[in-house]
From TrEMBL:
Record protein name field: Gfo/Idh/MocA family oxidoreductase
Organism, as annotated: Streptacidiphilus pinicola
Domain GFO/IDH/MocA-like oxidoreductase intervals: 131-240
Top-level taxon in the UniProt lineage: Bacteria
InterPro entries: Gfo/Idh/MocA-like_OxRdtase_N, Gfo/Idh/MocA_Oxidoreductases, GFO_IDH_MocA-like_dom, NAD(P)-bd_dom_sf
First and last residue of the signal peptide: none
Domain Gfo/Idh/MocA-like oxidoreductase N-terminal: 9-122
């Protein structure tokens, strides 16, 4: 918490591939002072400048941090987060929240029981294209939503060793789909394969159903030389295509103009209308994510990914893996908390 107008004192756990980006943003974030970094290997790459590098979380806590960003391997998220909660430190945890559903639930309980701010770093929510898309869906610009399709593929990330493609990449699509539509997953059916010789899956195809009947398809892999990050939402007025690599959003409208060219009309099938590529301000998603979490810590209204939302994503990803193992459809109980 702040004392008067002093900056928030922040710490960072991990300066690996993603942690380095968090370090860069935290080093220049307004209203925040980065006071320490945890790296058991003492930062061999020399990323950190001007702040102490300590060996463990307890040493970071001793520096007097108000909040911490957890960017260590997924298998360590629960242990690190629970230790920080016990010291009344607010936390932004890189996705996924934890490597198991049970671990994610324990993290949620640790923070909620102490009234602390906790968030999960599902960075796609802060992508300008998806934020704009969500606003347009909420405004009814697409009418009834029929389907959400995501493609997320690229080369194998050698930085990842402890989880497969479902927990590392598909969690992005699970979170953003529920967020942009405002719906929950009701069921999933999935198939996975492993071609890299690792113990984890490196390709997944998912078919799902949301609570309002919307169909969902996720195709995710890290075996392709083509890097693709695309979300297509189709409804009764057309479809939106969001490219989160370029932060572009395009709308393809269902048209009302007929054509006299019979052969072309038969080939096209559905009516084609105007295509609009929207002009969107493009701020860095990671910076916006950090600004939102900073504001939440000081009690301002902020759109963060809550720990319970992060837990839901872990639950859905676990259902995807269970479906792939069983070969059947897995139904997912509602996460909505009944109101009194």
């Amino acid at each position: 918490m702040t004392a008067g107008d002093r900056p928030l004192r922040a710490g960072l756990v991990g300066v690996g591939a993603m942690g380095r980006h968090h370090y860069r943003v935290l080093s220049g974030l307004a209203g925040v002072e980065l006071v320490g970094v945890v790296d058991p290997a003492a930062d061999p790459a020399g990323v950190v400048r001007g702040v102490p590098v300590v060996a463990d979380v307890q040493q970071l806590i001793a520096l007097g941090v108000d909040y911490a960003v957890v960017a260590c391997p997924t298998a360590l998220h629960e242990e690190v987060a629970v230790a920080l909660a016990a010291a009344d430190v607010h936390v932004l945890i890189e996705k996924p929240l934890a490597d198991t559903v049970e671990g994610a639930r324990r993290v949620v309980e640790a923070f909620e029981s102490r009234g602390l701010v906790g968030a999960v770093g599902h960075i796609e929510r802060f992508n300008p294209a998806l934020q704009n898309l969500r606003g347009r869906l909420e405004a009814g610009e697409l009418g009834e939503v029929y389907q959400v399709v995501t493609h997320r593929q690229g080369p194998f990330p050698h930085r990842i060793a402890d989880v497969g493609v479902v927990k590392d990449l598909a969690t992005h699509d699970i979170d953003l789909t529920g967020w942009v539509t405002g719906q929950e997953y009701e069921s999933v059916a999935a198939h996975t394969v492993s071609r890299s010789g690792r113990p984890h899956e490196d390709m997944v195809a998912v078919v799902g159903r949301l609570s309002d009947g919307t169909m969902v398809n996720h195709l995710v892999n890290w075996l392709s030389p083509l890097k693709e990050r695309r979300t297509v939402v189709t409804g009764d007025k057309g479809c939106f295509v969001a490219d989160t690599l370029t932060a572009d959003l395009t709308f393809y409208a269902n048209g009302a103009i007929d054509t006299e060219w019979e052969a072309l009309r038969a080939f096209r099938g559905v009516a084609e209308g105007d295509m609009i590529r929207f002009a969107i301000p493009k701020r860095e998603p990671l910076l916006v994510e950090h600004e939102s979490f900073r504001d939440a810590v000081v009690g301002k209204q902020a759109d963060i990914v809550t720990l319970r939302q992060g837990l839901r994503t872990v639950e859905v990803s676990a259902a995807v893996l269970a479906s792939a193992e069983s070969g059947g459809t897995v139904k997912i109980p509602s996460a909505r908390i009944p109101t009194a």
